[in-house]
Amino acid sequence: MEQGAVKTPRAGGLKRRRRLTAWLFMVPLLVVNVLVILGPAVATVYFSFTEWSGIGPAEFVGLENYRDLLADESFWQAMWHNVVWTILFLTVPIAMGLLGAFLLSQIRRFQLFFRIAYFIPYVVASVVNCALWQNILDPERGIGSSLASIGFPFLDGVSFFGNTRLALPSVAFVNNWAWWGFILLLFLTALQSVDQELYDAAKIDGAGRWQQFLNVTLPGIRPTFIFVVLLTIINSLLVFDYVFIITRGGPAGASEVVGTLMWKEAFERFEAGYASAMGLGLSFISGVIVLVFIFLRRRGWEF
Amino acid sequence: MSAASGGRRRREPSKIPYYVILVILALFALGPLVVVVFNSLKTNAEIGRNPLGPPLSPVFQNFPDAWTQGDFSTTMVNSTILTLGTIIGVSVIAATGAYAMARLDLPGADAILLYLWVASAVPFQLFLVPLFFLWTNLELTNTRFGLILIYWAIFSPLATLLLRSYLVGLPRDFEDAARIDGANELQVLTRVVLPLSWPGLLTVALISGVGAWNEFFFAITFIQDNNLKPVTTSFLAFQSNFSQDWGLTSAAAIFIILPIAILFLFLQRRFISGITAGGLKG
């Protein structure tokens, strides 16, 4: 009895000390995150309501930046390019990734070789990927002229990145080259966890390759598929590197996306308040998309 | 029995079309990289005659030329410092954070878990502008440390999540034994838990290291000083100066790829599985 009375405050102190230790261990993580992400993110909300060049005091202007944003044609053009980008990335790399992953899951020999081959472009720096495709797609010395010299002149002299109609899809093509292999490996990991007996059962029922794919493969990788779709939408809204490196949004805004437009507003035109509003608007849209996915999932929607 | 298996084999479709498509996809993935290697071994005159094919008379002069003209002796040091600084910092931050969440009954751990998920997917547009002007005021722009600090913040949420899920799966027996022997929590972490969780740590180091080495967006925004630029942003300037000299730019490109390629060769399977595990940060 007496011992218990002595023990209880001691245990409480121990528990408190343990909690204190836990928080001490969290200090590095919390400090850098608050300093770099959380604090500035909150500040973005404030600055989006101000007229601010980035230097000196910010003047509160209410909703003016948002009114300007809604009336800004270059913003809507850039937003449209993000939508086009999203559609391209929801189709081409996912189709290539699914196809490659399915075929790869059906073979045994050289599997590691193919996996490495498809994965390499994903880990090469974006600047390098852009440079090598700028060389290959060069109008004078690139693949167009090489094809012309062996009798296929249809691509000769085509300026993939300099033509207003081709610039955006061409940049997307380069980005996709570095991206689809990664999608493939995500699908492959999912496919390898699909029960092989289901395929055997489908074969016994006389299902062809296409029917096996539709009825066994796709349902088996549904969670990964949903994840990839979400990842694609978010990344497409935020795209920056490939556009900025290859065309800087040009020619004449033909490949401008919101990410590059916002960067220019902040660091070339010194409209930091306006850029904040743009950044917040973009983050808001991607946040809403994530929430919709979470909501549908909570409601038990069959994906 | 043998008749049954023979019948099954007959129905098994041939795998040759599979291999054909897989090889075409592999050529698409590797072809452009092969062209870079080819061009790095050609003179400009040969590239003019033969822009995409293999070199007919390989030369190696592009490599020393690109190294000096691209100032790689400076930028390689910068990138190495950025990468190692990121790896060490992220590992420490993730290890302590993950340990607190997995083992120390952190109050509010669920809220922090949610924050980490959000932070690992948060768009840079949300915090970029105030961050830049905060860094300007703190005189952290145009410093390697300022950039490393940003990398710590953007890579640590995912790293902590990965390491935490790894730690949750580890048995606690050794830790409890060490605690009974009078070790404090920091000693338990460094002497017992970390040696056991090296595969998780290696994944974290890989993701943050490759991420930092290849990073472009924050590097171009926060570092303008040529003496402090990493290889990525420095390469962009180099490429626009020598845009017609493909031999030189290809050799420079190889310098950037090489460290990652060597790492890849040594780690292979772990490299792929590690980076796909961290795929949330595309």
Count every beta strand of chain B, where a strand is a DSSP E run of 2 or more residues.
0
Classification by helices and strands of chain A: mainly alpha
Helix coverage percent of chain B? over 70%
- Beta-strand level of the residues of chain B, as a percent range? under 5%
As a percent range, the share of helical residues of chain A equals over 70%
Number of domains of chain B: 2
What best-fitting shape of chain A do the alpha-carbon axes yield? globular
**Strand sequence of the main sheet of chain A, in spatial order?**
1-2
Strand/helix succession of chain B: HHHHHHHHHHHHHH
* Approximate shape of chain B: globular
Q: Give the C-alpha Rg of chain B.
A: 24 Å
Let me know the average pLDDT of chain A: 87
CATH topology group of the largest domain in chain A: MetI-like fold
- Helix count from the secondary structure assignment of chain B: 14
Largest interface: which pair? A-B, 95 and 93 residues
CATH homologous superfamily heading of the largest domain in chain B: MetI-like
What's the N-to-C terminus distance of chain A? 59 Å
CATH class of the largest domain in chain A: Mainly Alpha
Average pLDDT reading of chain B: 88
Give me the Rg of chain A, rounded: 26 Å
Structural class label of chain B: mainly alpha
